[in-house]
Amino acid sequence: MSPPTSSAIVFSYGDGDGVRRLLPVLLASGADRVGVVTEGDEDLAGSLESLGGPRLRVFHGADRLGKARAYNQVVPWAQETEVTFLISADVGFPCTTLRRMLEEFADPRVGVVVPRVLPQPAETAAERVGAVLWHLHDLQLSTRVGGREDIHGGEVVALRRSLVVPLPENVVNDDAYLCLRAVQQGLCVRYCRDAVVRNVTPSTLRGLCVQRRRVNFGHRQLNGMGMRPRILTTMMPDEARTVLSVMGRFARSHPGELPYLAVLLGLETYSQALAWGDARRRKDHSRWAMVPRTAPAPMLRPNAPHS
To answer: Strands of 6-13's sheet, edge to edge?
Structure first.
């Protein structure tokens, strides 16, 4: 049985290096088509046209629209293949990652596939705090596999064609929205833990707080849409056992990171309070500020260690 046809779309704002680093990987991944959505970088848009041949399509906008609006512009193009990968420009992975995710669509119940996200090796204390967040995310999704499949992830998301539809233009957490929409339609979200993506985390606590403020605002926004994103801090009232299981597994697998977990819990509480205030003021987070990072994410070799 031949694999489904696929499009891989990279979204970039001011990250030409990330796009150039990802492009050879995407072209080698077997994706039938590769799209690059870039905003504000005229030089990048011009230089990419000659790199990918007929499989590459560049969508360029002079102004920054925000992720949801940029995505909506490429929906008709993406709907021409059976599976669409949505990819942030600041990640790294081997070409085998997309191939592995594509295999999951052999199951007709699967609507969305998300990979395991590993943080780049930390250089600052803030990056270690951010790394804890991704380790907890992995443990949470691993715990829920085989149970209720209302999971959601980010950085790279693979969608079945029926789910490639326009987003509400002000939605912030587009990845969570797409995953939860799949569940609403009776499809499941598959966590493909052996498909690995490497991601960078903010290099300062202030940058991490800005990022978490936006994400928590996005979760509140989804709740207002009748969706229910599942994050550890909101699961405690009705799923205390799951939360305690995740925390216990984290303590056993990452004992040296417990001090950073304490910092993360405090920062998360503060950022949720800020997000609550933003929601009351009807703040628009659809176009967010870039946060400082020390370095781009490295590419992962197929046999790279996953820890």
So the answer is: 56-61, 33-39, 6-13, 83-88, 156-160, 110-119, 188-199, 91-92
Q: How, if at all, do strands 56-61 and 91-92 pair?
A: unpaired
Helix (H, G, I), strand (E, B) or coil at 289: coil
pLDDT in tens, 27-61: 899 899 999 888 766 666 667 766 657 788 888 77
What is the number of domains present in the chain? 1
SS3 of residue 169 by DSSP: coil
Three-state SS for 156?
strand
**Cα atoms in the Cβ-side hemisphere of radius 13 Å centred on 203:** 8
Of 83, 81, 59, 63, give the one whose Cα is nearest residue 71. 59
Rounded to whole angstroms, how far apart are CA atoms 198 and 216? 22
CATH of the domain at 108: 3.90.550.10
- Domain that includes residue 107, residue range: 6-280
Model pTM? 0.90
The upper half-sphere exposure of residue 301, i.e. CA atoms within 13 Å in the direction of its Cβ, equals: 3
Beta bridge partners of 213: none
Taking the C-alpha atoms of residue 293 and residue 123, their distance in angstroms, rounded to an integer, is: 10
**Dihedral, CA atoms, 265, 270, 275, 278, nearest 10 degrees?**
180
